[in-house]
Amino acid sequence: MEKMSRVTTALGSNTISGQTMFCHLDAPANAISVCRDATQVVVAGRNIFKIYTLEEEQFAEKLNLRVGRKPSLNFSCADVMWHQMEENLLATAATNGAVVTWNLGKPSRNKQDQLFTEHKRTVNKVCFHPTEVYMLLSGSQDGFMKCFDLRKKESVSTFSGQSESVRDVQFSMKDYFTFAASFENGNVQLWDIRRPDRYERMFTAHTGPVFCCDWHPDDRGWLATGGRDKMVKVWDMTTNRAKEIYCVQTIASVARVKWRPERKFHLATCSMMVDHNIYVWDIRRPFIPFATFEEHKDVTTGIVWRHQHDPQFLLSGSKDSTLYQHMFRDATRPVDKANPEGLCFGLLGDLAFAAKESLITSDANRKPYPGGDRRYPMFFFKKPDPTEQFAHVSSALSVFETDLDSHRMDWFVKTAQLYLLSGKPFAELCDHNAKVAQELKRPQVSTTWTMLRIMFSDPANLAASGPNHNLSKLGTLPLMNSFSLKDLGSGMGAESRLERSKGESRQDNIHLEPGNSYISNNEENEETEGSEGHPEYMFGDAELDDDDLYSMEHDNQTEEQEYTLPQEAFQLRHEIMDNPSAPEHLQQDKADSPHVSGNEAEVTCLTPIESFSLISISQPLFSPHLPASFFCPIVREMLSYYAEQGDVQMAVSVLIVLGDRIRKEIDDLTQEHWYMSYIDLLQRFELWNVSNEVIKLSTCSAITCLNQTSTTLHINCSNCKRPMSNKGWICDRCHQCASVCAVCHHVVKGLFVWCQGCSHGGHLEHMMNWLKSSAHCPAGCGHLCEYT
Fold first, then answer.
1. pLDDT tens digit sequence for 634-684
2. What is the pLDDT of residue 400?
3. Most Cβ neighbours (<10 Å): which of 32, 160, 352, 432?
4. Closest CA relative to residue 716, chosen from 697, 732, 696
């Protein structure tokens, strides 16, 4: 292990010295706690419960509290705390709902002292009173907090948070009777231990579960909270209403938060997923950490400052089964590597660029943004504060505006609203989206959708895939036979065109009917007699467009014959007959024609060059039905092209519509990046419904969970106002049905509408009909209800 510099801190009669060091644990740790004199640390987890001594250069195992051949679930710890007044007293929160206290002064191997089993679900947190030796507080997943007097065998008080789960409880450092509790519904409650019937104050702290809270050790009214919304907020609790005074934006959910001793504005945080680092923040500079510890290889589960008056040593446990002592001098300082430049695009296409003033002022062509423009009300400039202990790096902001008319994003909004991504057959989705793009004057995108339909549609259903394709007029033309029609036609000589015009001027000239699918060789050769080039092919009334040429299919699917060695070096295009017979109506035309002799029809059939007709080949040279996988590399390149051009809307839309046809060709990280970019754009344009649809249709696990956060609905009983369980409509406490219609007095199992003034309600149709004729509440409470 690399040797670090040693630090010695004098704290009264005690002296703390050490360095950055670690030790391997037997199992992952869930929580750690340090004793009052900072010489020992306890590590608790599902399969570990040990005490280590903090020596100068290493951790030394002192005591293993998991004793017995078959340890019970009481040893499976979710949290642990060492009493700061009594050095031999520990408390643990068990995953089976038990709260256990441990007396290290016992002479026996089993140090268990008290066992409380009043909680019904996992206990998330235990907390000793900072000055009262026998007072212990617990918070559980069952929504209750309990206060224990360790001299008694059961709890003395029960506090109901009226929520689903209590995540953290913390006694105030300055107020003897006050403790704070954080909940999964985003609320924080302040309680007085003398009044277990109702909280003193409640406020919504985060837009999701609040996982942790911590009182400031010096400032009486400051409370720090951390939640799943990736934020750490500092609240001033001295006012009548909780006031947010600082907010730190992190990059992951905040699992633990601890104020740094002797530093008023510093606190440490760690995450419960994704991010393994420990950050120390200066709350006055919320966008970049003051220091970072990057030693752990897995999620950090517990952090604690070694001594309540020493800011230099931080202890941490992790799921990587290591216990670390971090020395603050060895921490990484991100501010030293910070990039002073910033770049961002606005919704209107404008570009904001921030850089050092020295770079901006050196370029005479750039003018710093003056501020105050109504078009950019969100820009503001912070005045320098001389009391902040930061290196001041001043930047200048420049805004490059674009012409609004030439860079409007109306097409993006309309495309997002009109595109169909699911609910119809693949071919119909492609045709609809192609039509939308065409109407918005985006021909390249429209053509792309058309080509996707051609590539991936079922060949048997191509004829019915769209009204603009005349496949029914073409019948069974082979796909590979359509590539050189124009080339052959352009190679004809003038004489051939003259003879063609003569033939077309005749009254009895033969035209193709819409149902005809091919042209006879004999007729073509007869019409082009005397021409030196290849014959020209015409489709009569059924003219082909470009889409038709690329969408021809050969429907004659016969069983493949066994391969035999051909007798000819060049395979004949069709069977050569000695005396070919043409249909009677063609023979009649030949007899009537003034420039065709009777024997010329036979000669033309035996001429290899003139008898080669792309339209009349009975079998294609190869199978016309290319598998969908044949086009996947091309489609993958096309999606990458659109994404690189900034059109993630097209990339994501095609990805959703094609589904499994293309999804495996693109790696998950690229798909996630496209989805996140498109969803971000949709939300910036406030297209919430489209954004939610894209999230629902996504197959990336990181995307589908975006609309699953904070979706729990907490229901209170309309009679006793207590929280309802998830088992049914009957309240567990008052045994009354909570959702009875005020009009018909039956249980509402569908849409329920209620008055926010009196809380009475019922079936939607019943309430609508009632309020059409009466303004008074149907429950008879006298409230004037209003339906809007």
1. 999 999 999 998 899 999 999 999 988 888 888 889 999 999 999 999 998
2. 80
3. 32
4. 732
351, two tokens: 């570009």
Bridge partner list, 233: 225, 247
| 715: amino acid identity, one letter | I
pLDDT at 586: 44
Residue 758's pLDDT is what?
79
**CB 734, CB 720: distance < 8 Å:** yes
Task: State the Cα–Cα distance between residues 682 and 690, nearest whole angstrom.
Answer: 7
Distance CA 449, CA 431 (A): 7
3-state secondary structure of 349: coil
pTM recorded for the entire structure: 0.54
Helix residue spans in 505-556 (DSSP H): 521-527, 546-550
Cα separation, 240 vs 262, whole angstroms: 28
Close Cβ partners of 669 (under 8 Å, ≥ 6 residues apart)? none
Instruction: Sort 15 into a burial class: Cβ within 10 Å, 0-12 / 13-18 / 19+.
Output: exposed
Give residues with Cβ within 8 angstroms of 2, minimum separation 6.
none
The domains of the chain, with CATH numbers, are: 339-380+391-400 (no CATH), 407-455+629-711 (no CATH), 713-787 (3.30.40)
- Kindly list the distances between the CA atom of residue 671 and the CA atoms of 642, 651, 653, 761, in Å, as whole numbers in the listed order: 13, 9, 11, 46
Q: Side chain identity at 13, as an amino acid letter?
A: S
Which H or E run contains 248? strand 243-249
CA dihedral 456, 461, 467, 469 (to 10 degrees): 70
